[in-house]
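User: quick one, sequence for these tokens?
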């Protein structure tokens, strides 16, 4: 068609692909039902580290196609404040899964950091998703391998195979616990997600699945994310369960309501004192192992003996503090050099 004289041809802005989101903070991971235009619009400005647009259990089977279209439109419009943008597709045993991945990635893949794959019970599920992503990326010219996969472990088979699942693809950036589906899968006698089942007094009924997921995540270099707390008005309950997984070593937790975001961000960030102390330990260790510091492998840091293992622990806290945007407020001063006679 010939453009009328004087009018500029419409030029669409080139869309920049998003950078790799593997190591980005995932303290709070906000679930947004893809079938709710109101919640999709609200999610744009919320301060969660990750936002995922849900096509799975928060969407009725009758609304799947419409939700998929709404999610694609929301991704294309962009503007999310969150550092990681994901879509949870339906699980591989459903008739919706292949179209979820193909339509979302073909139409909005350059605005997407990760696919959340739910109810993963075997490495085959991950292989399927990885291969499909590779085919779409090469067909439409997306950066190969940039779109990550976050798997959800939600049943006994998935937990039993979690190591093989974590090793199934280099795209896996995080392993998330799905407590509601998991409780149903193992017949746990409780209807309140995150609460101890009545009658179980000996310990924490979630310790085993959480630890199992955490070890698999750490062994394969990915993040470990705790699942949601469904009592969205109970801030004390949320604090209690979030502190439990944060203390174990988890990187973050799913949230279902905007009011849960700040609580969870706070709990999964080191406090300022711990962050400063970690930075000081790293500086002190660097100094003492250097020639100027006497090339010592172990040295005193205040009243504490520090060595290579202390450095590793400090590095983890310092990394989490940096990812949470903390700025150190204390500087290391090397001890005065010993006086020569
Ligand atoms: C989340 O998907 C859960 O099942 O808890
Ligand atoms: Mg689930």
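Assistant:
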């Amino acid at each position: 068609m010939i453009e009328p004289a004087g009018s500029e041809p419409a030029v669409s802005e080139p869309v920049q692909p998003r950078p790799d989101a593997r190591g980005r903070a995932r303290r709070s991971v906000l679930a947004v039902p893809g079938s709710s235009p109101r919640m999709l619009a609200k999610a744009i400005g919320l301060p969660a580290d990750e936002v995922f647009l849900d096509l799975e259990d928060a969407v009725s089977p009758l609304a799947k196609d419409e939700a998929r279209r709404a999610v694609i439109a929301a991704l294309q419009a962009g503007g999310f404040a969150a550092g990681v943008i994901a879509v949870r597709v339906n699980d591989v045993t459903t008739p919706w899964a292949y179209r979820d991945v193909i339509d979302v990635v073909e139409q909005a893949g350059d605005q997407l950091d990760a696919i959340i794959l739910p109810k993963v019970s075997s490495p085959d599920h991950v292989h399927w998703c990885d291969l499909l992503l590779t085919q779409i990326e090469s067909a439409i010219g997306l950066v190969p391998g940039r779109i990550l996969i976050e798997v959800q472990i939600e049943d006994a088979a998935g937990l039993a195979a979690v190591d093989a699942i974590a090793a199934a693809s280099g795209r896996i950036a995080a392993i998330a616990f799905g407590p509601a589906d998991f409780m149903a899968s193992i017949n746990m006698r409780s209807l309140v997600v995150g609460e101890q089942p009545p009658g179980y007094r000996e310990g924490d009924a979630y310790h085993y699945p959480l630890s199992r997921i955490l070890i698999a995540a750490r062994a394969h270099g990915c993040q470990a994310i705790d699942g949601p707390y469904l009592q969205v008005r109970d801030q004390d309950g949320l604090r209690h369960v979030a502190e439990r997984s944060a203390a174990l070593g988890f990187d973050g937790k799913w949230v279902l309501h905007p009011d849960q975001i700040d609580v969870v961000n706070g709990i999964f960030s080191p406090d300022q004192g711990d962050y400063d102390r970690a930075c000081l330990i790293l500086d002190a260790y660097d100094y003492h192992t250097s020639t100027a510091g006497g090339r010592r492998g172990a040295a005193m840091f205040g009243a504490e003996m520090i060595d290579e293992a202390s450095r590793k622990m400090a590095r983890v806290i310092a990394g989490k503090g940096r990812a949470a945007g903390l700025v150190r407020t204390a500087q290391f001063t090397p001890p005065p050099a010993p006086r020569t006679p």
